[in-house]
């Protein structure tokens, strides 16, 4: 009987069941399926002891010798159940895999029930997998253990449903025995615990629905049943399940892996864990058996991470591998330790390592630690190396150098983290807190540390960095580390990083008493980024800072940032302790913690205080808060005092809000509340005071309540405060504000000195010439010689906020005129606009200066007065995309000469021979004046001043744009300049 790739295998199995005898096993029909090649199954029917319990048919190939089956799983599964292929991982769907034996166990509880089945496919592994074949440690393992097969057999199991241990025992019992060995199964059964357990344990999951790999660990005294589900849906099920051997297993979804604790020792070789994993590598799926092991010999410890074998399913050839290795040696004089990690990416392999060396020499201790990485990516090497040398150099008793750091990266980009993560940055952590040498005791920690290096120093072809650091101590109280880094490639970035630690009093070196009244760690970072156009300096206290008591924790930070280019050009911020509580921090502003403390004084009292100050382009913010909480049994009380300031300038104005609240209670009595709020504004001092006494509210006013809004400033104040200063003339008087500038941005070949010109002058290359004109005052329109210029997409929605000038009232224009002097001493003429291109330059300007004014007419002391409405804390900080100037470049002139169109027919004719095209003429040979030098000199003197020569020379110079009368003066004395006069025509 032959079937195609439709699910007719199931039909044949059903037919075989229908012919099953109710009382004894029987040979079933031979079943042949065709999936590129014919595969023949032998079948046997196995009824249960009680016919009512169910019937089973087993079909198998039992092909122990000969060529294996090379089968595509998609096609094979389609002969049994088309829906099960949905649970096949994408990397296996069209992959042809070699199998030694195939077996399907098909079972029905009743004739009318739905069948359930288990398909077992034994992989044809090309080579035995033995411990002695493992890299690094294989040769050091004894023959008794090394010759043992790590995994004697591997199989792919496909299940129509999830089977319990009890159900697998039933199916195993149906597998036929070998004819010559009645106690041995013809096909190896599915692994289950040898001894039957309780009903509860027998009901535990053994095989999941879908596809899974199964095998058995063959180490002596460490037999483990390995099972790993690889179906996409099943891999996301419960994290912890009972394995087929009855052990707990942990599934990690990153690589689909199952790990088992072994903790066995074979002589010097100790085995900690073994893992069974599946990976899809660039459409080349692989089964891996990995172990974490260590080897200890005479004080030397060798630790291995993810040591094992990978079996590519494409050809089933094992390849031995190792992901990480650590080494440690220690005696009374020297300590050596190191670790190396291999990371496999889809496109490349990377090796990351760290090492440390400590030794005593002549009574002094020295130490070196280093981290590094290497990869070969996209045909180019990529690496970095960073080393720290620990040694003591006494420069002065108050300044002692304790170490140096040096590093570089090639085809690596350096990502310096934010200041709050500075202590975790590898280049800082390696110097401040060097890696512990006990690699064998903390394998996972070292592996994690190595893996994080790529986060900060990723591969980036064309990039690089250098790092130089210095460790030192001041007055034996302040331990410091400074690191300068320069990164190029994706961006040009300079960072200066600093760590300063201090304890008061400083604990003695060998003292067990480490208590102190103050512990401080200050983090510093200065940064310049070319792409972001930012210059910044930040400082922050680390989380371990305290004063007086470890329960009194200190916080705080500061930042100064200036943006000189890019989308945030002209923006700035200075902050100490953060921002106003209602201020919505822009994304590019740094996050700064409050200057403050939190102190738990015993079990009853806690204190908390914080302060802040910030200055940005449109406001100043300052404030603070003090809080105290007391609780003793049912008696409680708290006190809160806070103040917040919002200050603007030009016009100067301030607003202050101060609140104090006291609450107390005892049991069910309370809370009793007393509070006061003080609201002040100025510069004309005024405000309100509000009191709360339980349920009574009283408000008092003082000062001129109508003066709450500031007056606009005049033009003179605005000009002197916000525009560039005026230029002084030679006579001592001053001109108007110098708001416009002209810069030759490109094309300068020479700058003429002031001695040769009255004004600064340049010699420029017209092809590369670029002028940049800018104005400190944004413009709403642009003119060239009073003719309109396009301003592109520049916005015009701005006014002068501090003067109370709205966007409708303000009219600004930018007038450009370019003049050319035709002749020396003559007047200049205006160049035609069409000779240049004018490209608008836009930028963002502070709203505090150029924002649309919001003006309100109010009465102050009985008189009408225009006042400016105050900006809100979260008002837009910048007027975006306003016109500030132009880039001016010569317009590319179109070539007036062009080739006429030629009819194609004229180019399709044959070649025509034309005779006598060239007419040869007889020419007179050159004849010199004389062979004597004196005669030639005389001839030159006479010729250079002849009327004919002078006339020809004048015509030539004029055609080149020169003035012959002023620019070129030639006399007969030129002939005397020759040492040997040249030969001239007679």
UniProtKB/TrEMBL annotation:
Record-linked InterPro entries: DUF6603
Domain DUF6603 positions: 262-753
Pfam families associated with the record: DUF6603
Ranges of compositional bias, category Basic and acidic residues: 7-17
Region called Disordered, residue ranges: 1-29, 179-201
Protein's UniProt name: Genome sequencing data, contig C301
Lineage, uppermost ranks: Bacteria, Bacillati, Cyanobacteriota, Cyanophyceae, Oscillatoriophycideae
């Amino acid at each position: 009987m032959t079937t195609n790739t439709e699910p007719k295998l199931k039909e044949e199995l059903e037919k075989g069941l229908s012919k099953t005898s109710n009382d004894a096993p029987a040979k079933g029909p031979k079943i042949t399926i065709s999936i590129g090649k014919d595969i023949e199954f032998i079948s046997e029917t196995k009824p249960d002891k009680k016919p009512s319990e169910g019937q089973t048919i087993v079909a198998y190939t039992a092909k122990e010798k000969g060529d294996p089956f090379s089968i595509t799983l998609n096609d094979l599964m389609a002969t049994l159940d088309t829906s099960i292929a949905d649970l096949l991982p994408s990397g296996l769907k069209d992959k042809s895999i070699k199998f030694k034996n195939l077996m399907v166990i098909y079972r029905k509880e009743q004739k009318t029930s739905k069948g359930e089945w288990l398909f077992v496919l034994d992989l044809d592994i090309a080579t035995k997998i033995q411990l002695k074949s493992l890299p690094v440690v294989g040769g050091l393992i004894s023959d008794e253990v090394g010759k043992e097969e790590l995994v004697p057999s591997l199989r792919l199991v496909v299940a129509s449903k999830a089977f319990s241990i009890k159900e697998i025992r039933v199916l195993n019992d149906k597998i036929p025995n070998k004819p010559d060995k009645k106690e041995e199964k013809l096909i190896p059964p599915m692994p289950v615990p040898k001894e039957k357990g309780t009903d509860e344990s027998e009901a535990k999951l053994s095989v999941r629905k879908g596809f899974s790999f199964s095998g058995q660990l063959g180490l002596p005294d460490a037999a483990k049943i390995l099972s790993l589900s690889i179906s996409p849906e099943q891999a996301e099920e419960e994290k912890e399940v009972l394995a087929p051997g009855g052990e707990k297993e942990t599934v990690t979804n990153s690589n689909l892996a199952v790990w088992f604790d072994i903790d066995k020792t074979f002589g010097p070789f100790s085995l900690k864990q073994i893992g069974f994993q599946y990976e899809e590598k660039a459409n080349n799926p692989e089964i891996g058996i990995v172990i974490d092991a260590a080897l200890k010999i005479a004080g030397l410890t060798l630790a291995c991470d993810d040591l094992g074998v990978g079996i590519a399913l494409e050809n089933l050839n094992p390849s031995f591998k190792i992901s990480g290795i650590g080494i440690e040696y220690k005696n009374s004089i020297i300590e050596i330790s190191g670790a190396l990690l291999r990371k496999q990416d889809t496109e490349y392999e990377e090796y990351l390592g760290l090492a440390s060396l400590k030794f005593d020499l002549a009574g002094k201790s020295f130490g070196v630690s280093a981290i590094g990485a290497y990869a070969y990516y996209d045909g180019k090497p990529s690496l970095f190396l960073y080393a720290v040398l620990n040694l003591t150099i006494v420069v002065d008793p108050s300044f002692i150098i304790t170490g140096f750091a040096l590093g570089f990266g090639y085809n690596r980009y350096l990502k310096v983290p934010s200041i709050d993560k500075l202590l975790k940055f590898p280049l800082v952590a390696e110097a401040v807190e060097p890696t512990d040498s006990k690699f064998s005791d903390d394998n996972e920690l070292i592996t994690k540390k190595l893996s994080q290096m790529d986060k900060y120093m990723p591969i980036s072809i064309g990039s690089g960095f250098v790092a130089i650091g210095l460790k030192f101590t001041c007055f034996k109280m302040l331990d410091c580390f400074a690191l300068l880094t320069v990164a190029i490639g994706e961006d040009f970035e300079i960072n200066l990083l600093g760590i300063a630690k201090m304890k008061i009093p400083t604990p003695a070196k060998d003292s067990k008493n480490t208590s102190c009244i103050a512990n401080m760690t200050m983090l510093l970072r200065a940064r310049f980024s070319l792409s972001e156009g930012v210059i910044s300096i930040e400082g922050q206290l680390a989380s371990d800072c305290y004063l007086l008591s470890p329960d009194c924790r200190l916080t705080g930070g500061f930042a100064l940032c200036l943006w000189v280019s890019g989308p945030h050009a002209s923006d700035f911020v200075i902050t100490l302790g953060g921002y106003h509580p209602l201020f919505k921090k822009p994304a590019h502003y740094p996050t700064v913690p409050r200057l403050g403390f939190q102190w738990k004084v015993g079990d009853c009292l806690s204190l908390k205080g914080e302060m802040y100050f910030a200055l940005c382009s449109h406001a100043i913010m300052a404030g603070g808060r003090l809080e105290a909480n007391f609780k003793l049994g049912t008696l409680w009380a708290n006190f809160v005092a806070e103040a917040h300031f919002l200050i603007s300038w030009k016009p100067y104005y301030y607003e202050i809000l101060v609140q104090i609240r006291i609450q107390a209670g005892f049991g069910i009595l309370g809370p009793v509340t007393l509070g006061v709020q003080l609201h002040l504004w100025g510069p004309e001092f005024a405000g309100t005071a509000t009191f709360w006494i339980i349920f009574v509210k009283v408000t008092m006013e003082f000062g001129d309540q109508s003066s709450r809004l500031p007056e606009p400033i005049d033009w003179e104040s605005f000009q002197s405060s916000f525009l560039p200063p005026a230029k002084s003339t030679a006579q001592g008087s001053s001109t108007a504000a110098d708001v416009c500038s002209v810069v030759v941005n490109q094309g300068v070949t020479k700058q003429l000195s002031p001695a040769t010109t009255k004004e600064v002058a340049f010699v420029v290359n017209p092809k590369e010439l670029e002028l940049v004109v800018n104005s400190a005052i944004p413009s709403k329109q642009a003119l060239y010689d009073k003719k309109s210029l396009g301003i592109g997409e520049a916005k015009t929605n701005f006014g002068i906020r501090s003067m109370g000038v709205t966007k409708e009232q303000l009219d600004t224009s930018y007038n450009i005129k370019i003049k050319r002097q035709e002749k020396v001493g003559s007047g200049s003429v205006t160049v035609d606009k069409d000779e240049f291109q004018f490209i608008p330059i836009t930028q963002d300007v502070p709203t505090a200066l150029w924002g649309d004014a919001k003006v309100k007419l109010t009465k102050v002391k009985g008189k009408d007065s225009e006042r400016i409405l105050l900006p809100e804390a979260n008002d837009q900080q910048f007027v975006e995309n306003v016109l500030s100037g132009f880039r001016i470049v010569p317009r590319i002139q179109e070539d007036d000469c062009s080739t006429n169109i030629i009819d194609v027919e004229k180019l399709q004719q044959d070649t025509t021979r034309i005779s006598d095209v060239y007419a040869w003429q007889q020419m007179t040979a050159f004849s010199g004046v004389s062979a004597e030098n004196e005669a030639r000199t005389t001839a030159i003197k006479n010729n250079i001043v002849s009327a004919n020569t002078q006339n020809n020379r004048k015509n030539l110079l004029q055609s080149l744009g020169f003035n012959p009368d002023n620019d070129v003066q030639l006399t007969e004395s030129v002939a005397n300049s020759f040492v040997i006069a040249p030969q001239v025509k007679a």
